[in-house]
Batch of 2 targets.
Target 1
Amino acid sequence: MAETKRFGMVIDTRHCVGCQTCTVSCKISNEVPGSAHWNHIESLTGEMLYQPTGSFPYPTLAFRPMLCNHCDYPACVHNCPSGAMGKDPETGIVSVDQEVCIACGYCDWVCPYGAPSVDDVNHVMSKCNFCAERAQEGDEPFCVASCPANARIFGDLNDPESEVSKLIHERHGEQYLPEAGTGPCVFYI
């Protein structure tokens, strides 16, 4: 097992029912202010959320939960003009130092996943931090713990024996937008 952790997540889109529990749990549990959201759901099969595609008797309705991908090469960190965006070398978690943030929004503009969100109450950027304090204590992020369909699995990507590593290997987990070159640490199956 590697000395440093590299936290990541696997999201099983076959299990996600689009209930938004992850979105609500994240917002409430992390006390995300104003209109900012650190999680959201997108349609995997069409342009409109909750609008099935296909036709009877085989309609399709599938979802892609979206959050910060805590990339190996995060565009937000490399392009933040104030240095507010940073990547923890011990865990791989990408976070924003709101004391340094100037709320220019450039991090959101360069992020291929649209993860940073404007905290319109405190006038700074905010984003998912994989519930860093919980993760350091060995607990799951709130979005994982609250998912009623068990569609999210969290763990150490550097540990080949972790559930996330095994799922990525066995179920051929795929990164979303790998062509962006950021090395996302969220995988979808």
Target 2
Amino acid sequence: MDSEALVRDHTIYSCVMGSRAFGLATDTSDTDRRGVFLAPTPLFWHFEKPPTHVEGPAEEQFSWELERFCELALRANPNILECLHSPVVEYVDDTGRELLALREAFLSRRAHETFTRYALGQRKKLESDVRQHGAPRWKHAMHLLRLLMSSRDLLRTGELTIDVGDQREPLLAVKRGEVPWPRFETWMTRLAAEADEAAVHSSLPTVPDQARVEDFLVRVRGASALQADPYDERVQGVVRGRSVRQR
């Protein structure tokens, strides 16, 4: 299946992520692009289904098929939720705007568990680096603090803001290795405790609004089935791409 054609012709939303979205970019920062594509419904009528994600075609570009994206967002996957809240949107069509309008439906107190679990995994890696090499990978340490800040503030306010704002310089100091490890540990532990406290009093719902998201997904799948001609050149181009590789 021609995955590049899905991204090229059927993207509904694309944005910039990474340091440029977090307000932490420097002169050497990459431009990480993330997106969502809606595979035409006729493609699901074949034995081989459309891919759930596509890497490329540009460097540092990664896209998810809409259903997979929604599934991960409902699970409060940190990368996916942050993608939905990027302040740097490069493209959005009408369906993409509907997806963005659903951002609130994906948010729940599940984010506390997923963000914390991810942060804990990163903390163990950093501690291993310190034991083995005497210092952590400071860039990863910076992003761990950023993630804990996002989690805490989301639980406190009910809104996910990924730009670090006035925390840019303190966080970049961590990235440059200017913050001693003991001080970093104290900062990290304090942020984790603040997130735990915020979770207790959070106004976020216990679970996301899956019914609302599913209604959106079923509706756009149905609209695609009604509007798309299975012999449309763009659809057939994707199928032909698949067939060529199978030979």
